[in-house]
Every structure is written in C-alpha cells, then in structure tokens.
What we know:
By secondary structure, the chain is α/β, with parallel strands linked by helices. Helices cover 16% and strands 35% of the residues. A hairpin with a 2-residue loop joins β9 and β10. α2 runs parallel beside α3. 36% of the residues are buried.
Amino acid sequence: AVAAGDEIPFDPLCRVRVLHPRAADGPMPPSPDNETSLVVAVESAGRRALLTGDLEGPALDRFVAGDPGPCDLLVAPHHGSPSSLPPRLARATAPEWVIVSGAAGPRFEEVRRAYATAAGADRPARVVRTDGAVRIRLTAAGSEGSQFHEGRWRSIAAAPAVTPPTTTTTTASSGPAAP
C-alpha cells in the first residue's frame, strides 16, 4: 500500500507523489472508504495536477488543513459534490482548471461558482465537467483545454504560449472517449 510521502516512479521529467492517505492516520473503519481515497500530485514542466479521487469527510478536512499547496489542475474530489468542500479546497489549491467528473448532480452550477470564485479574484478557475471526456494540456508555456462532444474534440479555452512546451496531459472521462 502507498501512503503520503511515497513517490511513484513514472518518468524522469514527471514526478508523481502520494499526498493521501497518511500512514499516520492508521487503518480506517471499513465504511468510510472515500476517506482513504488515493490523492496524488503529478508534477512536470513547472506545472502541478492534483488528482483527488473520492476523498471526502474528515479526511478531506485534514487534507485541506494540511495545506496541499497550489496547483494548475484539480480533479474535484467526490465528483465535485458540495461535500467536496469546493470553497475551502479552491482557496487551498488556487487551481487554474477544475475538472468535475460526471454531471455533478443538480447542484453543478453551485459547485462551479464555488470553485470559480474561491480560487482567487486575480485568476478564477475554469471549471468543466466531464460530459464525455475532458482533456487539459499543461505545458511550461501555458494550458489549453478541450472536450469531446458530438464525435470530435472542441476547444474549451487556451492560455498564451510564452516558452517552448514540455507536456503533461490529464484526461478524465465519465463515459466513452475517442483518442
């Protein structure tokens, strides 16, 4: 089993670190399996993505209180539900992009607003949900997003390039996706 502080060998130019669960937390009772959800940081080209799984409850409170640090991309925990602490997590991570897996239920607009406004007034987060697949390309030069819809990839938004890119790509999906 992996625990916070472990690194997963991946690539010399890409660092994958486990941020949760903490080994110090000890075994969790069988019912709150979301509280033991694996959280990793993927770092490359000066960019950082946080993949938070289904983390929620007291474990998410501890994770946010532990100052996870800023990121460029956040995959919202627990499908972006209100129990995923959108305002607190957004303030703690100040993401440029937030991916909400699935439809996020009838409260998606509330969750979207919480992430978009809590990340910081100087740079509100771009919040997208995976109605199909979402692809975010993070490079040293900037970022761009696209979404697979009606059989093709369509641009979501782009950030200007300023230096030659080194690439980290994260794809999330709630259903079938095309390459």
